[in-house]
């Protein structure tokens, strides 16, 4: 990740921003692999007040992502990132493991799950599932107390419930097969 076409990155972020305006509001981002790099960069851009997203990110979930190390994007990691974050890092990820660990350290209070798999969305064990659900519950509690607008509360709740349902069915599928 040392060579990135910054113009293409800007175009991609602009596309994400337009989608968020059109279909939102969205309270957080989930990114896997290169999407995890983008989610981490957007959280960092928000911290430096250079975000072009229509709303503030209230959380990010990063799966096998990492730090973008090229100019000018690497500057978004110069300050601690205060956005709540949940990181899934594969112990056997030969592609982005160390970069994912570096990214997690840039966040103030990251929740980090290191799983025994590679560059993938892994089946989570019970402790990891509990950590994930607690992360979502904390996001809901914090934002329900802060937010006044009813649409933000309901969209965050819908996202959190959708993630919990997804995790539930994922484990049922993995454990039954």
Q: Could you characterize what this model shows?
A:
This protein has 177 residues and is of the alpha/beta class. Helix content is 51%, strand content 12%. It contains 5 helices and 4 strands; from the N terminus they run H-E-H-E-E-H-E-H-H. It has a 4-stranded parallel sheet, sandwiched between helices. Helix 4 (126-146) packs antiparallel against helix 5. The chain is globular. The N and C termini lie far apart (36 Å).
Main sheet makeup: 4 strands, parallel
Number of helices: 5
Radius of gyration: 16 Å
pLDDT averaged residue by residue? 81
Order of helices and strands: HEHEEHEHH
**Proportion of residues in β-strands:** 5-15%
Low-confidence stretches: none
Strand order, biggest sheet? 1-2-3-4
Q: What distance separates the N and C termini?
A: 36 Å
Query: What overall geometry do the principal axes of the alpha carbons give?
Result: globular
Percentage of residues in helical conformation: 40-55%
Number of strands: 4
In brief:
With 177 residues, the chain is α/β, with parallel strands linked by helices.
SSE map:
Layout: H1 6-23, E1 28-32, H2 34-47, E2 59-63, E3 85-90, H3 97-106, E4 111-115, H4 126-146, H5 150-176
Parallel strand pairs: 1-2, 2-3, 3-4
Helix pairs in contact: 4-5
Labels describing this entry:
177 residues; alpha/beta; four-stranded parallel β-sheet
